[in-house]
Amino acid sequence: MSAQPSSVPFAIGSSQTAVPKPIVVADNALRHEVKSGESLYSIGKLYGVASDAIVSANGMSSADKLYVGQMLVIPGRTVARVAQLPVKPVAKPTPVLSAPKPAAPAPAQIKVASADTQVSLPVSKPAGADGKFRWPLSGTLLVNFATSRSGINIAGHEGAAVRSVADGTVIYAGNAVQGYGNLVLIKHANGYVSAYAHLKNITVAKGDIVSRGEAIGGVGMTGSVSQPQLHFELREGATPVDPVPMLAG
Questions:
Q1: Which helix (H) or strand (E) segment is 30 a member of?
Q2: How wide is the angle at C-alpha 236 spanned by C-alphas 165 and 217, nearest 5°?
Q3: How far is Cα 164 from Cα 67, in angstroms, rounded to an integer?
Q4: What is the reported pTM?
Q5: Percent helix, strand and coil across the chain, each rounded to 5?
Q6: Residue 44 to residues 1, 48, 49, Cα–Cα distance (Å)
Q7: What pLDDT, on a 0 to 100 scale, did the predictor assign at position 118?
Q8: What separation in angstroms does the CA of 4 have from each of 1, 7, 17, 93?
Q9: CB–CB of 156/188 below 8 Å?
Q10: Quick one: 155 exposed, middle or buried, by C-beta within 10 A (0-12, 13-18, 19+)?
Q11: How many angstroms separate the Cα of 181 from the Cα of each of 45, 170, 220, 230, 238?
């Protein structure tokens, strides 16, 4: 019987490939865990080691055989030596000093009317209002300014008196503005214009001088609404503003 051939690992064709020698790694050798986006070039640059040296030290077949989480031995670097490497200090930005802000004034208290009770809300008194505006109607807030971007809608009993929020002059009274129904516009001395829409009836005329709290009409549902309510707007010039913080009792 002929002798059995000895086992040969890594046989390729008729040639033989030698078993690679195991890599001996010192206990204090520095190891680096590969993170997403890193390459051998960036890792070598980090430690001042050529990427080819890292390939050889880790027995890698190719510089492209990297994967996230892989532990690489950094040749020529130990934990102690790396700890002694000088670290460049990070320059701290020069703080920009600003003048101290004045303390905010205590917020004023106003009362928001509702169907059942009155709720006190802290608000800052806006410039120009001087606390002269009053609520045009006592009722539940149906639509706020953040929703309509033009004004607020207040529910009320049909025919209930709608009152001017401040002294002023009536500059419009009619129903020619689509969607608003019966509408009254009042110009005030401080540059504001107040608007009252969906009225059931109008009791003032263009050119009339009205006083704060004077009735100008009644709650209705004219225009594009389906229940009795007042659509109220307050404009600074031509710009709508949120009236709620500017209304007092």
A1: strand 29-33
A2: 30
A3: 75
A4: 0.50
A5: 10, 35, 55
A6: 57, 6, 5
A7: 37
A8: 9, 9, 20, 77
A9: no
A10: middle
A11: 76, 17, 9, 11, 20
Structure tokens belonging to residue 8: 């040969």
Q: Is the pLDDT of residue 123 over 70?
A: no
CA distance 3 to 6: 9
Instruction: Kindly compute the dihedral angle of the four CA atoms of residues 201, 205, 211, 217, in this order, to the nearest 10 degrees.
Output: 0
Structure tokens at 108: 């004023």
Residue bearing tokens 């040296």: 53
CB 181 within 8 A of CB 175: yes
Contact 197, 231 (CB under 8 A): yes
Tokens found for residue 23? 């890599």
Count of CB atoms within 10 A of residue 104's CB?
A: 7
Shortest CA distance to 229 belongs to which of 147, 144, 160, 163?
Answer: 160
183 or 119: whose pLDDT is higher?
Answer: 183
Using 50, 70 and 90 to split pLDDT, how confident is the model at 34?
A: confident
Which domains occur in the chain, in start order?
22-83 (3.10.350.10), 109-246 (2.70.70.10)
User: Hey, what amino acid is at 141?
Assistant: L
Take residue 220 and report the two structure tokens written for it: 């209705």
Q: 247: closest CA among 159, 130, 107?
A: 130
Distance, C-alpha 237 to centroid of its chain: 29
> Pseudo-torsion of CA 40, 45, 47, 50, nearest 10°?
60
Q: How many residues does the chain have?
A: 249
Q: What is the distance between the alpha carbons of residues 219 and 181, in angstroms, rounded to a whole number?
A: 11
- Return phi, psi of residue 127, to 5°: -65, 135
Both tokens of 1, joined, read 């019987």
